[in-house]
Each structure stands twice: as structure tokens, then as C-alpha cells.
Amino acid sequence: MTSTGFGFQVTATDGAARRGAFETPHGRVETPAFMPVGTQGAVKAVTWRDLEQVGAQIVLGNTYHLSLRPGDELIARRGGLHRFVNWSRPILTDSGGYQVFSLAGRRRVTEEGVWFQSHLDGARHLLSPERAVDIQARLGSDIAMILDECVASPGDEATARAAVERTRRWARRGRDRFLALRAGGVEGVTVTNPGQAQFGIVQGGVYRALREESVQATLDIGFEAYAIGGLSVGEPPPVMYDVVEYTAPLLPADRPRYLMGVGTPWDLVEAVARGIDLFDCVLPTRNARNGQLFTRTGRLNIKNARYAEDERPVDEACGCYTCRHASRAYLRHLFMAGEIAAATLNTLHNLTFYLDTMRRIRDAIVFGSFASFRAAFRETCTARLLD
Amino acid sequence: MTSTGFGFQVTATDGAARRGAFETPHGRVETPAFMPVGTQGAVKAVTWRDLEQVGAQIVLGNTYHLSLRPGDELIARRGGLHRFVNWSRPILTDSGGYQVFSLAGRRRVTEEGVWFQSHLDGARHLLSPERAVDIQARLGSDIAMILDECVASPGDEATARAAVERTRRWARRGRDRFLALRAGGVEGVTVTNPGQAQFGIVQGGVYRALREESVQATLDIGFEAYAIGGLSVGEPPPVMYDVVEYTAPLLPADRPRYLMGVGTPWDLVEAVARGIDLFDCVLPTRNARNGQLFTRTGRLNIKNARYAEDERPVDEACGCYTCRHASRAYLRHLFMAGEIAAATLNTLHNLTFYLDTMRRIRDAIVFGSFASFRAAFRETCTARLLD
Asked: How far out from the chain centre does Cα B343 lie?
């Protein structure tokens, strides 16, 4: 392997669940960890101050959006994404692939890369494995992701096989580019964070043999750590849990394992139970803006008329600013009135719920009580809708 | 006069400018003071925590909006507006008149009051002088405003005279209702803040004789304090300043004088110079959401391309969260990307600018340097656009 150390240490285990931490140029991340999504250089509806207050240790930025606006070269001139947005904690950037593959009818996949039209102005661009590396080098995230071929839905085995094979070839090219940048640079590419790590991605859909093959191919190339991609794309949750269950143990125990784009709170618990260390998802922030709030006893839709005069906080057990200061009645009013503060307050709460869940998971692993935590969590906080 | 004390004390004067404070059931307000506008139970794009941090001592709530949604009876059942929104500092509510008179084509003015159709569902409602008092009693603001007849533009003298006369008749009815509530209640009206004060409003357009007449009629009825209405409705600023200059000295020196709906930062300074103590305006918050920011050296439009790589804060001399943490380049990016955080950060800055301006005004009056402050302010911070 040609990967460098990543400072990941597992400090406790409980079954397959792992408690640990990894080091980045912008500090330490306690795992299992959840990354709020800051698509365009901001987590929607909140400020960085809010993210510090809710205890976010790392956030995700979207390479697709940032490369189009304000542009990765502009961000590089400004010293990189951390400095541009003024967030001093770790950032992971995706490769841009997921967004580009989602541009149905406006993208064409070739071996070279993906030709796509910008959703902003229709301009044609190429996202290649090398360009995905270059953009992320300019952004200067602490963790860069390799460009993989994303399959939109579980798909058939032939499609999944083709994606695994292309992902392997692209991963080789992406890793070579990354190592070339690290070794001394590539003309025209400013590296704003020399300590950046690069994660490989395992594809293979819901096919065990393909997942095994993809793991081996990705390990053969060698990355600082590894992610499981191509899940949470429409397959039933039990199928996703199965894939995680047989894929995670194939990945090196001494590197964090990242399950991309997942998921609901109970997905996080179930994936941790199968050995996952890192997550990202738009669910807490997007649902907040739609008025759906997570609580320790279930979900609630704040627009429901039953909350019109409910003086209780969203979640009695939550210590977030929203739960300490706003009643359900007030939150419902703000939502119905279309006030921006509704998005802010709801987002603060949902992010707190997610990050609290991760803290509770980490504590449970240390105390050897993860199995009972998981059982209780499933009981109280799964798909149950309070309304 | 049948008014009660309002605890207003003038502690320093400098020319016609006054430095003082008044007491309300929710605490003290240092004057001259500016009230951020919280139309629907929230100041747009920020939370109450932000308002405390920027130093807002009092905010304005809109009776029209709150009475329609969530409804003044609901708010009364929840203990009043302070408790419903969880803001413990003073609140002033307007009468709802300004919004109702603005519903061109959807309102009909009679002596009884204004019949109007809700902008939400088209339902017909009557806003009468008595109902304006009742609604505000339920909301429980610290300061309630009398229902006056609002003239949309400066208008001719006959129109202004008719508005003065109707305002006088309505003021009598509104004061009677307020005193009846104070004396022991009116069936069906919950008074959520027994210490509420009521301000009268002087009309008269740009006609000196009418303003004098309206002052006398309003003083004859007697209120805790007095406001100048019907300005900032399209007349040129020098005309507005003239009206303030001859109207303010006619109002009792021992009561705060409130200039409604005003204005730009330089309007505030010019009105203070003429004896005004209290202001409200949507300008800092609305302009923030449109990307227009106030600074000590002029205004700037953050969407201007010249700021794309400008690493300076909006205002070097400003200590707000936005100026301490965000560059113009980042703020421009957030605005262009349509991020909600743009509205929040811009609003924090503009409100800080307004409230800092009031602090500087208060300090200047105490130190006897208001004239030089005013001259310097006009020089640097008037209509000059930096872009």
C-alpha cells in the first residue's frame, strides 16, 4: 500500500461497533461521527457559530457546487475552503460524482470522466478522476474522496459490475494524481492543505461477490481510509444493513470506515453495530426545513395543528438552544408564517439530535452497553411518527 | 390628562437632542432607541439570542399579522406575546392600521373602523379603534399604539385634515377602551400585561397648522406618550425633517417622542437632532436580505462582483459576529448562492450598525458632542454608495 498514516485509533469496541478517533490537519474527530452537510460552503440555515455550539466536529462540503460557484480556483486564491468560509475544524469533500451522476439528461459518462452541464448556466464541464482530485486539492479539505461511478438505484448485476470496474480504473487514476500532487505538484494546481487524506470508495451494489471484488481492488490501490458507496439509493434498509454487515469487516480495522450518504438516526445505529465509523446525510438539515423534527420518542411534523398551543419543547430531553427557548407552539407558528427563523431553529434541533445520538453511541461503546442502547433506540426512535 | 406615569427621564440634552430612558414592565429602554421590526413574532432571519447579542432593548411586533396568525386569542391563551415568543425585553406593538390601510382594493374605511380582507385567506375583518386596543391587550405588549387613519402618501390638505379629524375621534374611542380595560376589564378581553402603556399618534401630513391641531387634540385626550405618524410615506427627507422640527417641540418634554417607520441611519440622526427619542423601521432587516449593508463609510451591495475576492469584513470598525467572522467574499458567495445564512449574517450586521449608531448618538449627547457627531456622520455615512 502507498497510503500514509491517518492517525486513526480504536479505543474501545463493543461487538462490531468501534469507538475511536482520527487526526486531520484541522484537528481530531471522535468516531463514530456524523458530518452535517454544508453543500455550498454553509450548512443550510445555520452559521458556523451554531455548528460549533451543537458540537459538529467535521462537516462535508460538495465539490460539484463549490467548483461551479464560487469556483475552486477562487477558493484556492483565498487560501482554501477553511479560510474562505472561516471554519477551523475538519472538512471532508465529496468527489462531485454523486451530483454529476444525478444530472439526468445533462451528463454523459465516458471512460475519461463525466461530461455534464452546469445547473447554473448550462456550461459544459468534464469531471474526470484527475479533475476531482485537483478541485479538492484547491479546496484543501482534510479528506478528499475519489471519483467513483455512482449507480442511481440498486440496479442489476451487470450495471453494478460495470460500475465496480470503472470505479477501480478511476480510483487508480485518482490515486496516481493525488500522489503526484503530494510528491511535488502538478502545474496549475494549488494545494491548499498539504496534509489532505484521500479515501477510496467501494462499489458493488447489493451483490456480495462484487462488493468483495471492489474491496480488494480498492485495498490494492491503497488509500488513507475507505468508504462504502452506492447505498441508500432506494434499496430497502435491511438490504443496506446486509451489505454493510458483510462489507465493513473486509475493510482494514485500523482505518475509519465511512458509509456515504446515510442516513436516518436508526440507520446510523444499525451501521455502527456493523462496524461503521463515519456518516454524512442531508436528512437532519433538509427535514428541519420541511418541519420534520427528530426526538428521543419519535419524529414529529411541527406543522401539525395539534402543536398550535403545545408549550412543550420539541424534545424534553434535548439541551439545544431551540428546545431551551422555543415551544412547539412557537415553532409551529414560525413554520406556518414562513419565517426564516423556523429553518434555523429546526436545523439547530435536528443537528443536535444527530450529534447527541453519536455521543450516546460513543458512550455506549465505551461502557459496553451498545447492545442495550441499540435495542432501546430501535424501540423509541425508529420510524415512529408522533403525530 | 388621564395618563399614568411612564417613568421617562431625560438625563442629558444637547441642543434639541435628548438622552434618557423609560421604564416598561419588561425593563428599561435607553433613548434615543431604535426598535428592530419583528412582524410575525420574529425579527426576520435572526433568533432572539441574536437580538440580545446585538443589544436590542426593545422590538416592534405587528398587530395586523399577529392577529391573523397565530391569532391574538391564541397568544393570550399562551400568556401573551412575550411568553409565546420567549423574549423577556420590552415590546411595542403597532395598531395594525398601517398594514390595513396598505391593503389597497381590499379595505373600506368607515367611521366605525376599517373593513379589510385578510391577505392570508380573504376573510373579512373589522379593525376598529376598540378592536386595535383589545388585540394589543391580548398580545400584552409593553407599549400599545392607538389606531389612527394613515394617509398613504403626503396627500393634499383636505385629505390630511380628514385624517387628523378621524384620528382624533378614533383616539378618543381607543383611549376610552384602554382605560375601561385598565379599570376592570371588558368581557372577552384578556389583558396579559396590566402595565401596558398606550401612545397617541399625531397626524397632519406636511401641514403645520394641521400638525399643531393634531398635537393639541392628542394631548387633550392624554396618553402615556406620543408618536408622530404619517411621515416617511414618500415626502422628500427635508420636508420630513421640517415637520419633525416643528412638531416635536409641541410634544411634552417629559414623555418619549416616537417617530414611526423612520428610517435611514441619517434620518435617525437628523430626527434625534430635532428631539425624537424612539424609532422603528424595516430598513436594516429588509435591506440585509436584499444584500445592502450599512457601514461607517457608506452603503455597499454585497452582490457586486468587486467583492468576490475581498477579504475585508463589511465594516472594519464593526464588532458584530458577521464582521468578526465573515469576509465580504464569503458573504457575497452566500448571497449569490441563495444561502439562508446570507440573510442571517447580513441582518446581524445591519442591526448592529443601527444599534451601534443609537449608542454613539446616546454617548454623543452625554458628552455634548452631538453636533460634531452629526456633522461627521452626514459626511461619511449618508446616501453614499461604496460600489
From this structure: 21
